[in-house]
Amino acid sequence: MSLLTRRRFALHTAATTLSLPALVRAQTAPVEISVAYSIPVLFKDLMESVAKAFMAQHPNVKVTLRAPEDGYEQIMQRNLRDAITSTLPDVAFHGLNRQRTLAERNIPVNLKPFMDADPQVKELGFSPSLLSLGQVGGAQTGIGFALSTPILYYNTQLVKEAGGNPDKLPTSWDEVIKLAAAIADPAKNRQGMFFDWTITGNWSWQGLVFSHGGSMLNADESKVAFADAPGQQAMRVLRRMVDDGKMGDIRPDTMFQDFFAGRMGISMQSTAQLGRYNREIGGRFPLQCARYPLSAPGARLPAGGNVAMMFTKDGAKQKAAWDFIKFATGPVGATMMVKATGYMPGTTIPAQRKDMLADFYAANPNHLISIRQQDVITGWYAFPGQNALRITDVVNDHLQTVVAKKEAADAVLLKMAADVQGLLPKKG
């Protein structure tokens, strides 16, 4: 070997040796996925725990949680901007009613092919009815992570003092309003009730209308239907809560403070908040939950909560994202979620296993209320078109007018219907 050849061989060997660590690092570096979510008061600690538990089982994946948005509207607006700037997260947890808006913009990846190709899916306990909540236009847009229904929370100490019976709680709005009026006592700084009409996505308004047998729009979604008879009854009930049930024109933050301190008797809220109620109340007074009143044959309640969605189009990231979605929405993630909140899971397995939630549910009957309402749940309605978010705000503004007693319920409903009608997509 000539001197020149030996030098070339030495240089090649050295270069190869130096490049090996970089090559090894490249081969062993974990795939990083970004995850977006909202409502930190409910989900921050939980999401951090889920991500940590997932990474312990999947050391080849690094999960980076984005700073949480305040609510479902905020994360929707953020991700719509992200789509324009090509900065979408790889996985996002969105409200059930916002899937349609994202699907109309072709943002989510259809999860059905991943499910069909994965033999583990049949072991995760995803029932067809719960999976249907994550479907838009035939695609599996998302998989339920945290699902809820509206329920009533009672301070049974105040119920007893007002002459009520905790073993026979109200089953109609007439009874709820009557009991609230009996509990209300300004001299003792006691509030009777609060119906949280502000919950994201007009969920509470839908609950009132659906439970009276109504719907948001007609069958072809060309015309507002919530101003029909069921909607009129629903709006009058909301106003009666104020006039007869002595409900104050307050915000949810004030309601939470009053209820947790033992100054309020009845609260209509999502089961999502049950974990928070338990933590904040402690042993201050006995808390009892009850089903939401159904006011008509064929009554329904909107399923609330969120689904896990995949946004990334990158092949390697899609595998990691799918593994994370499976973990979060599957039995292990669902068990963590239920214990941290009041939501029900999108999988049926944890409730059947003593090492997961069977014993938990037996010891915490309030958590069973939402599950027992599954027989009447329906989809959380999403208004069609580009004005979906704006419609949400318009409805809320009109509901505030009713609660503030600025106008009569029927008159407000007519104005609300006209305003929403003007924001719907024009047919034809």
How does this model look, in words?
- With 428 residues, this protein is of the alpha/beta class.
- The chain folds into two domains: 31-148 and 303-367, Periplasmic binding protein-like II (D-Maltodextrin-Binding Protein, domain 2), CATH 3.40.190.10; 150-301 and 383-421, 3-Layer(aba) Sandwich (D-Maltodextrin-Binding Protein, domain 2), CATH 3.40.190.10.
- 46% of the residues lie in helices and 14% in strands.
- The chain has helices spanning 3-28, 40-57, 72-85, 99-104, 112-117, 128-131, 156-161, 173-183, 203-211, 229-243, 252-260, 274-281, 315-329, 331-340, 358-363, 368-372, 388-403, 409-421; strands at 31-36, 61-65, 91-95, 135-136, 139-140, 143-148, 150-155, 191-195, 264-270, 287-290, 301-302, 304-310, 377-378.
- The strands form four sheets. A five-stranded mixed β-sheet has the order 2-1-3-12-6.
- Helix 2 (40-57) links the parallel strand 1 (31-36) and strand 2 (61-65).
- Helix 2 packs antiparallel against helix 14 (331-340), helix 9 (203-211) packs across helix 10 and helix 17 runs antiparallel to helix 18.
- It starts with a helix and ends in a 7-residue tail after the last helix.
- Residues 3-26 have low confidence and may be disordered.
Seen as an oligomer or otherwise, the chain set is single chain
Main sheet overview: 5 strands, mixed
Q: Which fold name fills CATH's third level, the topology of the largest domain?
A: D-Maltodextrin-Binding Protein, domain 2
Q: How much of the residues is beta strand, in percent?
A: 5-15%
At CATH level 2, the architecture of the largest domain is 3-Layer(aba) Sandwich
Question: What's the CATH C level of the largest domain?
Answer: Alpha Beta
Residue share in helix:
40-55%
